[in-house]
Task: structure prediction
Amino acid sequence: MPRTGSAGWGYEKFTRRENDWPIVAAAAVHLPDGSVGVALANMGGVVLRAEAVEAALAEGKSIEEAAALAAEGTSPSSDMHADVEYRSHLARLLTQRALKVAAGETEASTAESTAA
Result:
């Protein structure tokens, strides 16, 4: 994720082993103007914007309420690593963590996460 000046950002991923591709990953950026962007990896054929999460935050919902919508509008696959339900669970959990890091509410749980 590129440096964003004074914006806070977080990146959370879940892997089976340290250097594996993530089963699911979530990135969040909290911009100085108050807007928030959220993206999800491995919840569809390409990286997706979590538009339901972004809209909920814009409406004033809490991070927890917004993160609960992370899997909306996605089409995760099912494979030997995770089924659709587990990927959806990971999307919600990792989105919540990334949003909290981006907002400066908590420390990152992965080396790739940080808050400005």
Remarks:
- The radius of gyration is 13 Å.
- The CA atoms of residues 12 and 109 lie 7 Å apart.
- The helical segments are 51-58, 63-67, 84-102.
